[in-house]
Design a protein that fits this description.
Structural class: alpha/beta
Order of helices and strands: HHHHHEHEHEHEEEHEHEEEH
Bound molecules: ribulose-1,5-diphosphate
Mean pLDDT: 96
C-alpha cells in the first residue's frame, strides 16, 4: 500500500490553506506521518527513510508556523529513537506515540480555553484578529461561563479569515462585530475595547510573537490606548530554533491573493502573511501551563523542548 497520495494531499492542502491555523497544520502533518507508518516497506530502515522524506516535504509546506516543524521533528525524534525495533513493533510504537501527541494537543487546547476564559471579565469588549481556533475556544468558553462578552473581529485581508471567526462566535451566540482591518485604531477607542486577544504562529525565545499580518499594528494601538494585548498559544508554537538565534521566515504569498494580476500595471504588489510583535507590547501569553509573561518564553522552551535543544 502507498500512502504517498495522503502525504501529497496534506502538503497541498497546507500550501493552499485548505488546512490552516498553526495547530491544525501541525495535527494534519503528524496524522499524515501516522498513515505513512503503514506504508509497504521491507524493514524498519526502509520505512524510516520514507518517513524522513515525508517529514521534509511536510515541513517545507508553509514556513512560518513553528508548530509544524515542532510536531514533525518530535515524531521523527521518536522514530529515530526506535529505529532498531522490528518493523511491526516500530509501526505500532510510532503510531501510538503520534496518537498520544495529537491527544495532548487537543487537551492543551481545552486547558487553554479554560485558563483563557478566566482572564476574561464580565462585560469585556474584546478585539481579535484573523482566525485562531485557540482564541475562538477561549471566547466561547468565556461565553459559556456567562461572562457576557462582546467581540470585535477584523476582516483580516487578503484571505478574510476574520469571517470564519465572526461566524463561529456569532453562531455561539456571542455579540460579534466585524470591522475592516484599517478601522482598528478608531474602533478600539469608539467601542471601548478592554482586551485584544490573538493566536500565535510562533513564539520566539525572547517572547516576540509571530502571527497574522496586521497583528503588530493592533498591538501598537493597544499599547497607545492602554488595552491589554494577550497572545493565546499551545506550547507547541514556541520556537526552539530561536533559542539558537535562528530567525523565523515570514511567508510571502502570491500577490494574486491581494489584487487580480495585471490590474495595476507597473505596480509591485507584496503579500506578507505574518508579522512580528515585539514582546514589550504583549501583556501576557496564555498557554496550557498557565498565564506567563513574554519574558518567561525562554524558560518554557527549555522545559518543553529540552529533548531537541539538549539543555
Ligand atoms: C492563521 C493565524 C492564527 C494562528 C493561530 O494564519 O495567524 O492566528 O495560526 O491559529 P493562516 P490556531 O490563516 O495564514 O494559517 O490558534 O488555530 O493555531
Amino acid at each position: 500500500m502507498s500512502s504517498r497520495p495522503v502525504l501529497e494531499e496534506t502538503v497541498k492542502d497546507i500550501k493552499t490553506m485548505k488546512i490552516r491555523g498553526a495547530l491544525d497544520i501541525a495535527i494534519a502533518a503528524v496524522k499524515a506521518l501516522d498513515i505513512m507508518c503503514m506504508e509497504d516497506a521491507h524493514d524498519t530502515a526502509a520505512l524510516l527513510e520514507k518517513l524522513r522524506m515525508g517529514a521534509r516535504k511536510l515541513k517545507s509546506s508553509r514556513p512560518t508556523a513553528v508548530s509544524l516543524p515542532n510536531a514533525v521533528n518530535y515524531v521523527m525524534y521518536v522514530a529515530e529513537k526506535n529505529k532498531d525495533l522490528p518493523i511491526h513493533d516500530f509501526r505500532k510504537t510510532l503510531s501510538f506515540e503520534i496518537r498520544k501527541f495529537v491527544g495532548e494537543q487537543e487537551r492543551a487546547l481545552e486547558t487553554i480555553a479554560e485558563i483563557g476564559a478566566n482572564v476574561m471579565e464580565p462585560g469585556d469588549v474584546i478585539l481579535t484578529h484573523c482566525n485562531s481556533d485557540t482564541v475562538v475556544s477561549i471566547l466561547t468558553h468565556a461565553w459559556k461561563d456567562a461572562k457576557k462578552i462582546e467581540v470585535i473581529c477584523t476582516e483580516s485581508r487578503p484571505r478574510y479569515q476574520g469571517y470564519l471567526t465572526a461566524k463561529a462566535l456569532s453562531s455561539a451566540g456571542i455579540p460579534t462585530t466585524l470591522i475592516i482591518d484599517s478601522a482598528v485604531h478608531l474602533m478600539m477607542k469608539k467601542l471601548h475595547v478592554d482586551k485584544v486577544i490573538v493566536g500565535a504562529d510562533t513564539i520566539c525565545a525572547n517572547g516576540d510573537l509571530i502571527n497574522k499580518i496586521g497583528t503588530s499594528q493592533i498591538a501598537l494601538c493597544a499599547k497607545e490606548q492602554d488595552v491589554d494585548f494577550i497572545a493565546a498559544t499551545e506550547s507547541i508554537k514556541f520556537s526552539p530554533a530561536s533559542v539558537m538565534g535562528s530567525v523565523v521566515e515570514i511567508e510571502e504569498r502570491d500577490p494574486a491573493e491581494v489584487i487580480e494580476p495585471g490590474k495595476l500595471r507597473g505596480v509591485r504588489v507584496l503579500n506578507p502573511a505574518f508579522d512580528v510583535t515585539d514582546a514589550e507590547y504583549i501583556s501576557m501569553i496564555v498557554t496550557e501551563y498557565g498565564v506567563i509573561p513574554p519574558q518567561a518564553a525562554y524558560h518554557l522552551l527549555k522545559e518543553k523542548f529540552g529533548w531537541e535543544l539538549n539543555i
